[in-house]
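Most newcomers find our protein records easier to grasp once they have seen one. There is nothing in a record beyond a sequence line and a structure line. Getting from the letters to the tokens is the skill we practise here. An example says more than a description, so a record of this kind follows:
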Amino acid sequence: MQTINHSLKMDAYAFEFHNEKIVQSPVYDRTGFSNANHLREYIPGLQQFAAKTNFADFYMQHKPFYDSLIVSYRDSVGVPEMQKWLTKNFPSIKYDSFKIIFSPLVSSNQSATRFGFDGFKEAQAHVNFPFRDKGDLKSMSKEALLVRDGSILFTELNHAFINPESEKPQYAARITNALSNFSM
């Protein structure tokens, strides 16, 4: 069940909200770790919830807030620097696109996934927005807060590089061997 729960929040990215309807993305079928979209069976119930709660109106009323979160994340946590460092240190791993998907559905269950189609490769980080506690502003410098805000994102983005690197035969065998004699 944990894998399915883990995939639900990632598979949500395969749906879009258009004209008050939840519709399948024209690009993604799923972004979770399995061969099926585990959220699909819940779409009728989610659609009912969206209609009953007037979600479209709620979203539009709060869109400036959501847009401000996007701008804050994009402009303050060092995403270009993270991408540059990862690309430099893992030169054989290449991506055409990086997506950062942040949602309260993630909570503390951050994850990364990779997507590929017809030669196109994308890395996705599914993270929660790094909301701060009021006390943080008093106990940490602005620079320290920005590093902390981006730490989870970097941790997830690096999986899109470390995982394919460790799957290479020359490393996979060594990793398996090192962990096979691991005693608790």
DSSP finds seven helices and five strands in the chain. The chain has a mean pLDDT of 86. The two ends are 26 Å apart (CA to CA). The first helix runs from residue 2 to 11.
